[in-house]
Design a protein that fits this description.
globular; Jelly Rolls; 17% helix; 4-stranded antiparallel beta sheet; alpha+beta
């Protein structure tokens, strides 16, 4: 279950007292499907022993902004949280809702190019090839 492949790029950002939010955006004109798979949220060097709440800010089906807490980290009890490739559709904003960090988020930006009609045509061709195989096979025997 490798999260990364040929269409994946390593992603990382850091939230701090001075940079409380980070927005991950993609070019919507590039005709590809983009998924951000978050794997780890962790406190990094210099963090105080305080609650650090990280929110994901996105839009719901009615295009209203919603903020959902995904991690509550504290140096003494939970400095790291594995999110098991939590999938998000960009654009998405990560916000440090409480605490001063620094909190590091890492994961994978997966890019899948859409094939469109040409992909379906390729499928039809491969099905035709498979149909021809049985008639060729007995001839070789």
């Amino acid at each position: 279950m490798e999260p990364h492949g040929p269409g994946s790029v390593l992603f990382g950002c850091e939230l701090t007292a001075s940079t409380k939010s980070y927005t991950f955006q993609v070019d919507e004109e590039d005709d590809s499907d983009h998924i951000l798979a978050l794997s780890v949220v962790c406190l990094t060097d210099g963090a105080k022993d305080e609650c650090n709440v990280v929110e994901v800010v996105g839009r719901n089906h009615e295009n209203q902004e919603i903020a959902v807490p995904v991690a509550n980290l504290k140096l003494s009890c939970q400095p790291l949280l594995s999110l098991d490739n939590f999938k998000l559709q960009p654009p998405v904003t990560f916000r440090l809702a409480a605490g001063s960090g620094p909190v590091h988020l890492s994961g994978w930006h997966r890019i899948r190019h859409r094939e469109g009609a040409s992909f379906e045509e390729d499928d039809d061709l491969s099905e035709e090839d498979e149909e021809e195989l049985p008639s060729i096979m007995p001839a070789k025997k």
